[in-house]
Amino acid sequence: MAAEKFSIDQRETDKAIVLHFHGELDLEVAATLFRDKLETVVYRTEKELVLDLTDLSYIDSTGIGILVSVLKIRNERKAALTVQNIPASVCKLLEITGISQFLLAGVKGDAH
C-alpha cells in the first residue's frame, strides 16, 4: 500500500489560523513542510494557531519534532496554540513519548 501524501489545508478566521493536516507526516516531508507552510504562520502571534490533526494518518519522530518546535516557538512568544482532533493512533504515540501532556494542555474544542 502506498503512503498517503502529506498536505496541509489552511483557513483563517477573525481569531485563528487553522491548519488541517492530511496524510503522513514523516522525514520525507518534514524539511519542506516547515519552510513552506509552518514557518509562514508559526510566528504570527496576533492569532491563535490551531493544528487540526483529524486526517493525520501517521507521524514519525521527525514529525513529532516539528510539533514540539511549533509548541516551543509559540510558548516563547506567548502565542496561543491548540492541537485538536488527534487520531487515537497518533495520540497513543504522543502519550508514549511524553509529549501529549504539553500538546494537550492547551487543547480546546472546535476552532473559532
From TrEMBL:
Signal peptide: none
SUPFAM superfamilies: SpoIIaa-like
InterPro entries: Anti-sigma_ant, STAS_dom, STAS_dom_sf
An annotated Gene Ontology molecular function: anti-sigma factor antagonist activity
Pfam families noted in UniProt: STAS
Domain STAS as annotated: residue spans: 6-112
Family statement: Belongs to the anti-sigma-factor antagonist family.
Name assigned to this protein: Anti-sigma factor antagonist
Organism: Brevibacillus centrosporus
